[in-house]
C-alpha cells in the first residue's frame, strides 16, 4: 500500500518506489511534516517534530505550555497565518469578524485507490485506480468553521505526489480566503540552490540557479497568465547537485494564471516552500457551505540529480497529464503559414504552400492568423470569428477540400480570449472587454482581453467557434493568447469579489477549452501565447503540444529548449524550422527534432539543396518519432554552462537505441571532442549506425565517445545514432 496510517505514532506514510513522505498528527492535532526524501522503511522520524528550544521569541501553544510546542519552530504541513507561525503561510482566511488569524487542526482522513478530478480545474489523472492512491487529510479551524482538505495523490511508479487543497465554509456566515496555496513543504535544511525559469517574449525559460538565503525568495506572475517572464516551476537542488547526482525537489503548478512559488528560510535554517495562486492578486469569498478548490501542484523528489527530476516529470506528463487521441497517436507533421506569409495570404497561396510541402513529406497545413473578419494586420477583427471570403475566395470548405486533395490535413488559428477595439463584436458589446469602469483599458498588440470570466461572453465565442469547427473538416487548432491582462475587472463582479477576477478568468478559459476538447476530440490542439507565454502543465491537459517560442533561431532555441526541458517533455515542445539565416537547414532541423518538428517557411522559396535537406530530415523525424516522443532525455552539455557547445541525447525506454545531437554555438576550440553518453545499458554493446563501430554502453558512458575530425564550425551540428547489438 503506497499510503498507510500508523496508529502508534499517528503518522501517515506516502511511499513511491524510491521516495517516502511522512506526515504526523502531533499533540493538540497539529499536522506536521516529518520527512520527504529517499525511501525509508520507517513510518516515524524521531526529533523532527519540535524545535522549541531553538525558537526565537516564538509563541508557544497554550495547552502544551512554555517550551512545549511552537508552530513557528515546527515543520507545519500546511502553515496558516497569525496563530504562532511567522513564516510565509499557505492559508489565510478572514472570517466575518474581520480578523485573519487562521489555525487548522487535524480531524480525520480517508485513503482510497485512484484519484478524483478537481471540479472545473485541469489536473493529472490515473489511467486506472491501481496506478494511484489518494490521501485526504481533514482539518478544521474551530473558531471560523473553515474546513480544509489536504489531498495527496501518489503515483508510486513515477515517484510523483500530486497535491491540492480545498477550503469549505463550514460556518453560517461569509468568509474570505486571502490565500490558499496548493502546496506547503517544510524541509529541515536550507542548504539548497533554487532553480527557476525566467525569460521574456522570444527568450522563454532561461535556467537560473541561485543559493537560498535567509528570508523569502521565489518567483511569481501577476500578468494574468503563467507567462514568459517566470514559469510555474521551481526546484530545490542540493548544493553541488548536477544532472546526474544529488538531491533534487521539483515543483510544478498545474495552472495557467497568476501564481507564486516562494521559499522562506528561517532562523532555524529550515526552508518552507509554498506554491499556488498568487496571493497578491487573489481573494475569494465563500458563502456558507461553499468550497474553493486550489489548482494542483506536482511534487517530485530524486536523489539522482536534475536530469532525473526532469525525466520523472516528462514520463509523468506523457502518461498522466497529456490526454486524448494524440497522447499516443502519432501527430501529423505540419507547416504553419505564419512566418511564411504573416497576414499576406489567400487561398491560392496556401494551396501552393501545401503542394510544395507535400513533396517534402509534410502532413498538415496550418492557416495561422489572418483568415477571419477584416484581419490584414494586427489592428482589428479579434472576436469576429467568421471567414474572410475576400482572402479565401471559395470559402473555408473549398480551401480545405483543395488542401485535403493534395493529401494534407488542415489546421486553423484562433485567439478566443481577445477582442479588437476595431471589431463587430466590440462595437456590439463594448462592455465585454476586460476593463475597470471609468478607466480606458491598456492596449496590448492593439487588442483588449475579452472577459472570459463571464459565461455569456464564453457562450458567444463558443458559438462562433462551433460554427466554423463543426461545418468544416478541421484537424488542428492553434489557440493563441497575445497579451497580458491589465485593468483586471469584470462588470458582473460585486465589489467584494473583484479580486476573484483573475482566477475566474482562467477558469473561464478552461471551461471553453474543455468544451472544445470534449466536442471535438479528434482535433489536435496546440497552445500558444506569443510563443511560450503560457507553457504550463495545465495547458498540457488540453493541448498535447505547446508552441515553445516565436523565436525559431536554432541557436537561441538551444537555450529555450534546454530550459523548457526542465519539466516539460519533448513530446509537448512545439519546434519548427524557419527561414531565418543564422544557421543552415541541417542544424535548424536537428534542433527542431528535439520537439514536435514542423515547418514555418515558404516552401516555394526553398532551393533544391534546402528542400533536399528538409526532405531527408523529415524522414529522420518519422524514423525517430517514438525515440524522441517517448524516450528519456539526457542533457549532456548545457549552453547555459558551456558557451561553445550544446549536446543532448534521447534514449529509448528499453535502452536499445539512442540519438546524440551536438551543436556548435561558437567554434573557438574543439579539434578533439569527447562526449560521455548516458542512460545506456553498461553491459550491452551498441553499434554506431553511421560508422558501424561497436562499443559497449560502459565504454560510451565512462570512457566517452571520441569525436575526431568533425570541423564543427559555428552553427554546425552532428547527429549520431547507436543501436544495441550482439557483439
Ligand atoms: C503569436 C504566435 C505566432 C503567430 C502570431 C499570429 O505571436 O506566437 O506563432 O500565431 O501570434 O498573430
Tell me what you see in this structure:
The protein is an alpha+beta fold and 727 residues long. It contains 13 helices and 39 strands. The strands form seven sheets. Strands 6, 7, 8, 9, 11, 12, 14, 15, 19 and 20 form a ten-stranded antiparallel β-sheet that branches. A hairpin with a 5-residue loop joins strand 3 and strand 4. Helix 3 packs parallel to helix 4, helix 6 (455-471) runs parallel beside helix 7 (501-519) and helix 10 (585-592) runs parallel beside helix 11 (608-623). The protein is globular, with a radius of gyration of 27 Å. The two termini are 43 Å apart. It binds alpha-D-galactopyranose. Residues 338, 368-369, 413, 480, 482, 528, 530-531, 547, 550 line the site of alpha-D-galactopyranose (GLA).
The unreliable regions are none
Calculate Rg over CA atoms: 27 Å
Q: What average pLDDT do the residues reach?
A: 97
Helices, by number, come to: 13
Distance between the termini: 43 Å
Number of strands: 39
Helix share bin? 10-25%
Using the alpha-carbon principal axes, give the shape: globular
Q: Note the beta-strand portion.
A: 25-35%
Oligomeric state of the chains in view: single chain
Bound ions, cofactors and other small molecules, one mention each:
alpha-D-galactopyranose
Summarize the structure.
The chain is an alpha+beta fold and 727 residues long. It contains 13 helices and 39 strands. Strands 6, 7, 8, 9, 11, 12, 14, 15, 19 and 20 form a 10-stranded antiparallel β-sheet that branches.
Amino acid at each position: 500500500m503506497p499510503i498507510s496510517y500508523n496508529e502508534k505514532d499517528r503518522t501517515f506514510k506516502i511511499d513511491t518506489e524510491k521516495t517516502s513522505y511522512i506526515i504526523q498528527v502531533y499533540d493538540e492535532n497539529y499536522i506536521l511534516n516529518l520527512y520527504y526524501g529517499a525511501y525509508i522503511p520507517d513510518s516515524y522520524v524521531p526529533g523532527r517534530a519540535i524545535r522549541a528550544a531553538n525558537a526565537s521569541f516564538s509563541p508557544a501553544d497554550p495547552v502544551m505550555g512554555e517550551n512545549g510546542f511552537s508552530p513557528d519552530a515546527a515543520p507545519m504541513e500546511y502553515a496558516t497565518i497569525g496563530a504562532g507561525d511567522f513564516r510565509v503561510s499557505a492559508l489565510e482566511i478572514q472570517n466575518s469578524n474581520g480578523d485573519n488569524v487562521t489555525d487548522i487542526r487535524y480531524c480525520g482522513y480517508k485513503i482510497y485507490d485512484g484519484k478524483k478530478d478537481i471540479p472545473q480545474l485541469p489536473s493529472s489523472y490515473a489511467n486506472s485506480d491501481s496506478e494511484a492512491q489518494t490521501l485526504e487529510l481533514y482539518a478544521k479551524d474551530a473558531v471560523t468553521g473553515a474546513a480544509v482538505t489536504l489531498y495527496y495523490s501518489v503515483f508510486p511508479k513515477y515517484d510523483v505526489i500530486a497535491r491540492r487543497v480545498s477550503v469549505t465554509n463550514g460556518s453560517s456566515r461569509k468568509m474570505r480566503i486571502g490565500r490558499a496555496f496548493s502546496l506547503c513543504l517544510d524541509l529541515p535544511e536550507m542548504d539548497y540552490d533554487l532553480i527557476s525559469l525566467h525569460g521574456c517574449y522570444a527568450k522563454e525559460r532561461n535556467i537560473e540557479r541561485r543559493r537560498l538565503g535567509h528570508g523569502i525568495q521565489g518567483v511569481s506572475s501577476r500578468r494574468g497568465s503563467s507567462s514568459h517572464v517566470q514559469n510555474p516551476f521551481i526546484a530545490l537542488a542540493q548544493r553541488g547537485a548536477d544532472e546526474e547526482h544529488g538531491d533534487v525537489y521539483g515543483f510544478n503548478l498545474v495552472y495557467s494564471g497568476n501564481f507564486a512559488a516562494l521559499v522562506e528560510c528561517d532562523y532555524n535554517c529550515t526552508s518552507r516552500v509554498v506554491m499556488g495562486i498568487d496571493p497578491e492578486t487573489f481573494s475569494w469569498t465563500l458563502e456558507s457551505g461553499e468550497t474553493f478548490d486550489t489548482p494542483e501542484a506536482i511534487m517530485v523528489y530524486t536523489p539522482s540529480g536534475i536530469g532525473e527530476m526532469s525525466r520523472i516529470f516528462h514520463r509523468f506528463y506523457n502518461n498522466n497529464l497529456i490526454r486524448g487521441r494524440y497522447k499516443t497517436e502519432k501527430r501529423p507533421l505540419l507547416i504553419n503559414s505564419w512566418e511564411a506569409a504573416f497576414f499576406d495570404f489567400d487561398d491560392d497561396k496556401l494551396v501552393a504552400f501545401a503542394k510544395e510541402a507535400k513533396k517534402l513529406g509534410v502532413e498538415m497545413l496550418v492557416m495561422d492568423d489572418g483568415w477571419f473578419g477584416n484581419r490584414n494586420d494586427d489592428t482589428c477583427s479579434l472576436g469576429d470569428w467568421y471567414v474572410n471570403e475576400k482572402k479565401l475566395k471559395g470559402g473555408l470548405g473549398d480551401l480545405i477540400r483543395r488542401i485535403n486533395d493534395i493529401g494534407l490535413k488542415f489546421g486553423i488559428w484562433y485567439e478566443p480570449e481577445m477582442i479588437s477595439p476595431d471589431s463587430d463584436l466590440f462595437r456590439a458589446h463594448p462592455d465585454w472587454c476586460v476593463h475597470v469602469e471609468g478607466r480606458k483599458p491598456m492596449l496590448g498588440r492593439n487588442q483588449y482581453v475579452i472577459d472570459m470570466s463571464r459565461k455569456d461572453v464564453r457562450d458567444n465565442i463558443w458559438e462562433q467557434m462551433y460554427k466554423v469547427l463543426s461545418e468544416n473538416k478541421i484537424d488542428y487548432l492553434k489557440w493563441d493568447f497575445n497579451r497580458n491582462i491589465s485593468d483586471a475587472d469584470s462588470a458582473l463582479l460585486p465589489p467584494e469579489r473583484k479580486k476573484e477576477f483573475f482566477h475566474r478568468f482562467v477558469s473561464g478559459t478552461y471551461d471553453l477549452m474543455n468544451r472544445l476538447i470534449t466536442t471535438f476530440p479528434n482535433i489536435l490542439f496546440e497552445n500558444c501565447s506569443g510563443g511560450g507565454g503560457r507553457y504550463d502543465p495545465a495547458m498540457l491537459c488540453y493541448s498535447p503540444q505547446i508552441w515553445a517560442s516565436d523565436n525559431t533561431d536554432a541557436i537561441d532555441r538551444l537555450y529555450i529548449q534546454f530550459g523548457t526541458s526542465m519539466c516539460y517533455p519533448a513530446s509537448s515542445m512545439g519546434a519548427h524550422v524557419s527561414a531565418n539565416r543564422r544557421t543552415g537547414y541541417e542544424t535548424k532541423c536537428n534542433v527542431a527534432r528535439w520537439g514536435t518538428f514542423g515547418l514555418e517557411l515558404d516552401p516555394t522559396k526553398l532551393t533544391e539543396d534546402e528542400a533536399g535537406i528538409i526532405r531527408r530530415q523529415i524522414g529522420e523525424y518519422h524514423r525517430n518519432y517514438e525515440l524522441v516522443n517517448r524516450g528519456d532525455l539526457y542533457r549532456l552539455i548545457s549552453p547555459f554552462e558551456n558557451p561553445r557547445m550544446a549536446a543532448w541525447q534521447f534514449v529509448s525506454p528499453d535502452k536499445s537505441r539512442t540519438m546524440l545531437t551536438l551543436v556548435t554555438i561558437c567554434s573557438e576550440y574543439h579539434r578533439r571532442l569527447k562526449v560521455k553518453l548516458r542512460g545506456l545499458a553498461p553491459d550491452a554493446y551498441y553499434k554506431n549506425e553511421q560508422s558501424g563501430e561497436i562499443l559497449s554502453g560502459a565504454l560510451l558512458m565512462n570512457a566517452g565517445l571520441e569525436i575526431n575530425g568533425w570541423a564543427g564550425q559555428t552553427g554546425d551540428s552532428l547527429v549520431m545514432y547507436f543501436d544495441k547489438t550482439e557483439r
